[in-house]
Specification:
23S rRNA (Guanosine(2251)-2'-O)-methyltransferase RlmB, 11 strands, methyltransferase, SpoU_subst-bd, 4-stranded mixed β-sheet, Alpha/beta knot, Ribosomal_eL30-like_sf, 60s Ribosomal Protein L30, Chain: A, alpha/beta, RNA binding
Length: 268
């Protein structure tokens, strides 16, 4: 069991001006002027519905534009009606775009001091696969997670594949970027968060671990798991005991299971 608690990207942008926890002040707006590429029905629909998201250009097929109108989705900009293959040429042949592609401004990254302290947050320790991070964000949105915290370096950009995998969650769950994860965890602890790292060698099964809110669940990369300093900074570590023959899960599946266990226990 790995130590992570279970133990073509055609468009990219540079990370700009990620806020750090140390300032404990207002969020710094991103300083780059690059574009976030959003495609797929749920991803684009959520971006269009988010008043904080500025859409620069919207490409839509006739069918997709008709569906947007039927569902009363605010367009913000006039859609450019194109053929499906024109969108496919922009994204690549494997991208499932559902007839929608938006070029948008990246969202501002809030400061860690702005994270609400009345629920659950997820912390990612150098999880770099955009499919996994996107799927984790989707689960985070489903379970009402207050924020997803990750490092400014060694993390995928909030665009393209990640945005598609998140299925709109980028516009629902605040993404907080920090420079030093261990110090960020310390800042959460100072604010009363219980910090629990998911690790195959954790002290107890998460389902049997005493949990209190606000709660920060920390997940490490597949294979590597939590880094030593990250693990040492956690208040405790917990594992996910599985009854079947396979004892490990993909990190995004582990995140969903951990969120179910944690939110269920916190309701008691």
């Amino acid at each position: 069991m790995a130590r992570d608690g279970i133990r073509k990207k055609p468009f990219t942008r540079k990370k700009g001006g990620p806020s750090t926890f140390a300032a404990r002040g207002r969020a710094r707006p991103q300083t780059d002027v690059s574009v976030a590429i959003l495609y797929g029905w749920h991803t684009v629909q959520a971006a269009l519905a988010n008043p904080k998201r500025r859409i620069r250009t919207l490409f839509a097929t006739e069918n997709a534009a008709k569906r947007l109108a039927e569902e009363g989705v605010p367009l913000k900009v006039t859609a450019q009606i194109v053929r499906p293959d024109e969108i496919a040429r922009k994204l690549g042949p494997d991208a499932v775009h559902n007839g929608l592609l938006a070029e948008a401004d990246p969202l501002d990254n809030p400061d860690i001091a702005e994270v609400p302290d009345d629920g659950v947050v997820l912390v990612l320790d150098q999880i770099t696969d955009p499919h996994n991070v996107g799927a984790i964000m989707r689960s985070a949105a489903a379970f009402g997670v207050k924020a997803l915290i990750t490092t400014a370096r060694h993390s995928p950009e909030a665009t393209g594949v990640l945005a598609k995998s998140a299925s709109g969650a980028l516009d629902y769950v605040p993404l907080v970027l920090v420079q030093n994860l261990a110090r960020a965890l310390g800042a959460l602890k100072d604010r009363g968060f219980l910090v629990v790292g998911l690790d195959s060698e954790g002290h107890a099964d998460l389902a049997e671990t005493a949990l209190t809110a606000p709660l920060a669940l920390v997940l490490g990369a597949e294979g590597k798991g939590l880094r030593q300093l990250t693990r040492e900074t956690c208040d405790r570590t917990a594992r996910l005991d599985l009854p079947g023959e396979i004892k490990s899960l993909n990190v995004s599946n582990a995140a969903a299971l951990a969120l179910y266990v944690a939110t269920t226990r916190l309701k008691r």
